[in-house]
TrEMBL record:
Residues 181-527 form the Glycosyl hydrolase family 13 catalytic domain. Pfam families: Alpha-amylase, Alpha-amylase_C, CBM_48. This is 1,4-alpha-glucan-branching enzyme. The lineage of its organism: Eukaryota, Metazoa, Chordata, Craniata, Vertebrata. It comes from Prolemur simus (Greater bamboo lemur). The gene is GBE1. SUPFAM superfamilies: (Trans)glycosidases (SSF51445), E set domains (SSF81296), Glycosyl hydrolase domain (SSF51011). GO terms for molecular function: 1,4-alpha-glucan branching enzyme activity; cation binding; hydrolase activity, hydrolyzing O-glycosyl compounds. GO terms for cellular component: cytosol.
Length: 661
């Protein structure tokens, strides 16, 4: 508590300093309105940069025949530089839309460096060029949003997406393709939130979007900024909110088309020396206490909310931000001494508080999610209580548990108590996003859950015209069960990576030298689930109906579940949440007749979801017309109980039909 008070005091002090020196965080976070290159009311151009280590700053480009020194910036205080270029005689802009620009830096050592402005709104790579070009983006008319932002959903069901791999073709897919072809699928599947990866511009496609080169530019490999705005607007029209995967934990080492060495020094936006480099990621680390770095990053948060209409963020890699050791070589046991002490990078932590404060002040319905593997306490506590202010954190232990079980244990050796512990091991009132697998598990070198379960047989035995093999039968049944128990028990939100809902075969691998620049694994084969003769449709149907049931019943926004049974010999787990009874029989071969299940509620129950149903590739062993009546017979700590037939490898959800919906 004392440490949280210290954090809160530091946060208030910086907020106060921003108020005194900049007129408040509202003005401070509008850096993109003056920095970079802007058309003025008179048709002229105003340019501004922060380059504290530069000896001189110039603007060059198509507009001046690439003369490096004809347009010098004037030096201001605090390392800032500005330039005004008057309009042409016909009052048109001196730099037309679509023309190329560069900032020229003369360094203290006499070097002449060509740079892209850190505030560039659009960069693109032409032909076989290695580096990106800065292209002045100033269209005659920009996209006008037609739809208002949806209200913050009570339950968060996230579809983690990557635009570039969203087509089955071996190419980089476009914003347009995603808008027209993928958004309707996401809506049909019952997801109410999209988390978009790899939007902030990154020169290296195979970095999965995590080595950012231009922080204010939406990636041009998928299309134009206007087409991304249309994607977000169309999602809003469907009642779907859109989160950006924001990477403020580090930056690409590129200097020709990135932030690195912008002013000719190894500092500027980053720490100088070893402190400014991440050893594992080979990337640069921000100096979060530097005034202009705060302006840059906070303005970046605001830019994506205001300019593109995003509804919030997943903050990537914040374990690296929170600690001076960046989590490298650290195991986190949960001992609170690991979280509080000199190893904590308080500058980064205060920045995250400021970012959350800004997002939630601008848009109170904004959603922020922390990707932290360490389990740092108070991440999701309100800032006013000394917390960092995130709405949710990712429950990162859950996918690891499923992979461990599938890799290391026979089905009959799965520990029910350990599964329940992993799914429920979260602090009270700390909201978690549960997921069975995300993009991390699909990357080359690992395998998706479907591939762990079914492996090579997915190539030969997924046709409905062939009988179930034991491997495919097991795989399809467990795939559904793992997802439902994670969804029902694991958190206050749920996440799925695109394609994994229907058991997408193979792994993800972006074109790179190591695979001869192949796109074969950098795509999503949605057509597989549209093929009536393939079994992928069963998993897709189950995912859709699971989400739709949650939409109706709202278990993610209900209090944590009451687990009444975790029976090791029977391999049965039962729990109640949101007035529903969830029953899982993980036993590979044993079915149970008249199995007694405890419940808090008296009355009549019906099956509302059954993984054994025909439309989900099940064995249809249950009669959905059956009524189950609970009796006042105490069982497993519940005042009532009912008798149920539970086939092997089946997940059931029962609803009390006597209760009003």
């Amino acid at each position: 508590q004392n440490i949280a008070c210290v954090w809160y005091k530091q946060f208030c002090q910086i907020l106060s300093n921003i108020g005194e020196n900049e007129g408040g965080i509202d003005k401070f976070s509008r850096g993109y309105e003056s920095f970079g290159v802007h058309r003025c009311a008179d048709g002229g151009l105003y340019c501004k940069e922060w380059a504290p280590g530069a000896e001189g700053v110039f603007l060059t480009g198509d507009f001046n025949g690439w003369n490096p020194f004809s347009h010098p910036y004037k030096k201001l205080d605090f390392g800032k530089w500005e330039l005004y270029i008057p309009p042409k005689q016909d009052r048109s802009a001196p730099v037309p839309h679509g023309s190329k620009l560069k900032v020229v830096i003369t360094s203290k050592s006499g070097e002449i460096l060509y740079r892209i402005s850190p505030w560039a709104k659009y960069v693109a790579r032409e032909g076989d060029n290695v580096n990106y070009d800065w292209i002045h983006w100033d269209p005659e008319s920009s996209y006008k949003f037609k739809h208002s932002r949806p209200k913050k959903p009570r339950s968060l069901r996230i579809y983690e997406s990557h635009v570039g791999i969203s087509s089955h073709e071996g190419k980089v897919a476009s914003y347009k393709h995603f808008t027209c072809n993928v958004l309707p699928r996401i809506k049909d599947l019952g997801y109410n939130c999209i988390q978009l990866m790899a939007i902030m511009e990154h020169a290296y496609y195979a970095s999965f979007g995590y080595q950012i080169t231009s922080f204010f530019a939406a990636s041009s490999r998928y299309g134009t900024p206007e087409e991304l705005k249309e994607l977000v607007d169309t999602a809003h029209s469907m009642g779907i909110i859109v989160l950006l995967d924001v990477v403020h934990s580090h930056a690409s080492k590129n200097s020709e088309d990135g932030l690195n060495m912008f002013d000719g020094t190894d500092s500027c936006y980053f720490h100088s020396g070893p402190k400014g480099t991440h050893d594992l990621w080979d990337s640069r680390l921000f100096a979060y206490s530097v005034w202009e770095v705060l302006r840059f990053l906070l303005s970046n948060i605001r830019w994506w909310l205001e300019e593109y209409g995003f509804d919030g963020f997943r903050f990537d890699g914040i374990t690296s931000m929170l600690y001076h050791h960046h989590g490298i070589g650290q195991g986190f046991s949960g001992d609170y001494n690991e979280y509080f002490g000199l190893q904590v990078d308080e500058d980064a932590l205060i920045y995250l508080m400021l970012a959350n404060h800004l997002a939630h002040t601008l848009y109170p319905d904004s959603i922020t999610i922390a990707e932290d593997v360490s389990g740092m306490p108070a991440l999701c506590s309100p800032i006013s209580q000394g917390g960092v202010g995130f709405d949710y954190r990712l429950a990162m232990a859950i996918p690891d548990k499923w992979i461990q079980l599938l890799k290391e244990f026979k089905d009959e050796d799965w520990n029910m108590g350990n599964i329940v512990f992993t799914l429920t091991n979260r602090r009270h009132l700390e909201k978690c996003i549960a997921y069975a697998e995300s993009h991390d598990q699909a990357l080359v070198g690992d395998k998706s859950l479907a591939f762990w379960l079914m492996d090579a047989e997915m190539y030969t035995n997924m046709s409905v015209l062939t009988p179930f093999t034991p491997v495919i039968d097991r795989g399809i049944q467990l795939h559904k069960m793992i997802r439902l128990i994670t969804h029902g028990l694991g958190g206050e939100g749920y996440l799925n990576f695109m394609g994994n809902e229907f058991g997408h075969p193979e792994w993800l691998d972006f074109p790179r030298k190591g695979n001869n620049e192949s796109y074969h694994y950098a795509r999503r084969q949605f057509h597989l689930t549209d093929d009536d003769l393939l079994r992928y449709k069963f998993l897709n149907n189950f995912d859709r109906d699971m989400n739709r049931l949650e939409e109706r019943c709202g278990w993610l926004s209900a209090p944590q579940a009451y687990v009444s049974e975790k029976h090791e010999a029977n391999k049965v787990i039962t729990f109640e949440r949101a007035g529903l009874v969830f029953i899982f029989n993980f036993h590979p071969s044993k079915s149970y007749t008249d199995y007694r299940v405890g419940t808090a509620l008296p009355g009549k129950f019906k099956i509302v979801l059954d993984s054994d149903a025909a439309e989900y590739g099940g064995h249809q062993r249950l009669d959905h017309n059956t009524d189950f009546f609970s009796e006042a017979f105490e069982h497993n700590g519940r005042p009532h109980s009912l008798l149920v037939y539970i086939p092997s490898r089946v997940a059931l959800v029962l609803q009390n039909v006597d209760l009003p919906n």
